[in-house]
Amino acid sequence: MSTGSLLLWVVLPYACAVVFIVGHIWRYRFDKFGWTTRSSQTYESRLLRWGSPMFHLGILMVIAGHVVGLLIPREWLYAIGIDEHMYHLGATWLGTAAAILTLAGLAILIYRRRTVGPVFLATTPMDKIMYVFLGATLFFGTLATLVYQVFGAGYSYRESISPWIRQMIIFQPHPEMMEQVPIFFQLHVITACLLFALWPFTRLVHVFSAPIPYLFRPYIVYRSRDESRGAGARPVRRGWDPITTPPNNRGRRRR
Fold this sequence. Notes:
There is one protein chain. By secondary structure, the chain is an all-alpha fold. The protein has a single domain (3-208), classed as Fumarate Reductase Cytochrome B subunit (Up-down Bundle). It is built from eight helices and no strands. The chain has helices spanning 3-30, 46-71, 74-79, 84-115, 117-121, 125-150, 161-169, 183-198. The longest helix has 32 residues, at 84-115. It is elongated. It starts with a helix and ends in a 57-residue tail after the last helix. One of its GO terms (molecular function) is metal ion binding. One of its GO terms (biological process) is nitrate assimilation.
């Protein structure tokens, strides 16, 4: 095991994970008002109406595929009847469709940011860096799928990348598992690690936000003021006095 392998497949992932966790805690404590998507929908909605659903639906499919392929041991899938051939077909074709949908949505969103003036002016330097690493991660992942899975002989990443990640999670790293992994998969993993390190300092923090209190808040009831209030009703609280304007008789003919 070389020093470069140790740095790439042990030090870098753990360092990015620490920045990811500590960065989110810091951002939540000291920048709550900046914890937002910084929506630009008011500036332009036609392209956003197409690009945003495509990107978000595609990325959810991509995340689901990564969870199944990387975190769930294949023996568990065998136990429920999903053999290697069935998994390979689903991962290859559904993964390719999800990647194309995600990249198409991202391309529309980037085109919108570059061509719509107000949206471009609202784009920060960190947004641009985030788009570069997000696009690179998606690009290398899609390229690896096409080169090695669709048009190639196939590569079983569940024998190398998947156990490497699971061993990293339980703090028993085995960097040698990544040394013989094809280059595009390696680049996909490296850019993903760097994206996670940038995550807390970008608009991507909105992924961890959900309006949960809205599910439990009481209903808002609007009542009109009833002039004929019955006996025993609560007294009307003091509020704003109605604005009354005397009739303007100027210019009218007097009889």
